[in-house]
Amino acid sequence: MTAASGGDLFEYLLRLGDTSLVLGHRLSEWCGQGPALEEDLALANIALDLIGQARLLLEYAGKVEGQGRSEDDLAYLRDGRDYRNLLLVEQPNGHYGDTIARQFLYDAFAVELWGELTRSGDVQLAAIAAKAVKEHEYHWRHSSGWLIRLGDGTEESHAKMQASLDRLWTYTGEMFADDDVEQAIQRTGVGPDVATLAPRWNTRIDPVLSEATLTRPVASWMQRGGKEGRHGEHLGHMLAEMQSVHRAHPGAKW
Amino acid sequence: MTAATADTEIERRVWRLLEQVQDPEIPVLSVVDLGIARDVRVRDGEVEVVITPTYSGCPAMDTIARDIADALAAEGLGGTRVTTQLAPAWTTDWLSDEARAKLAAYGVAPPERASGDKRSLLGGEVTLACPRCGSRHSERISQFGSTACKALYRCLDCLEPFDYFKCV
Description:
heterodimer, A: mainly alpha, Ferritin, 65% helix, globular, B: alpha/beta, GMP Synthetase, Chain A, domain 3, 4-stranded mixed β-sheet, 3 helices, 7 strands, 21% strand, elongated
């Protein structure tokens, strides 16, 4: 087994780290605005886990890159084109059902992906994964529980939940579509063949969708591009807010 | 006294001092009780303390590292390095029996062992004993609580809400 080249590993770590960071930041936008105190706490806790994962991943990415960039440099001083997160996680929070649908679709993927990464040939990534997978399993329990509650709730909550799923579905294909970077990562034993995660993702979500009395959407086509830095309009707005303090006061500490 | 025996003596002292460093969010438990302090390495009088985070995003880690360095510096062990190690991943299985008893006395239900029993993580409800009245007639209010490591429950007999130290 040969080690992945520094460039591929760096790119891959950015994809993982940016996906955690962007979703973590999105969830943190709910802080103080949740529909109930318990949900406010839940989303803040999930955000905390994700941002913690992002810190570990981006710190490691900076080391692999070898240019002296810290986790903060990578989080706060890159523009949208340099972000490598999945398109799904940058979608705006919308109403609570939108947030739950986004979380549900991602958590089911994250549990499978991070489970595989615990067996990564890269020791540091495997160590990060051993923590992350337990956190994702706990998040999945939360999001799938709420999907059922809202899907199999009132007529209105059901209709809204179905619409949220239908709208977000087009962003799910990207999770299972690899490219040169991920093929190199797979060849070198660092990460899994993402295509093999698709049937496991289906097995995970289908029974929950049916318990939630929701119809699995049918995609006419799938969006992609996030992993290569081609994002929708929403990411730029999010980054502008997330990065504003750091950019206004570079290097500030307290 | 040879250098090696001196190092061993320092190592013992450091462990004793670490038992006095409390977790900032659960101030009845020390970093040793919690299993956060993983290792003490002493070489030629230079001290390194290895810690591990409970959760990836545990916001107390920076404070814990600083508290450890301060506590050792106050006892003449300045210049201690506190480093972080991720593997093996922290688990609630590392909580000592003493730590479990301290948690319960503090009003936090200790984790149901063991983390290998996935029912406590993934499956349905666990029946927890209320840390105040001991009744097992309790229900979960929220899967998440006041810190990353806790969930929120309520006793259905004495009606007090209580924290549960999540089992991972």
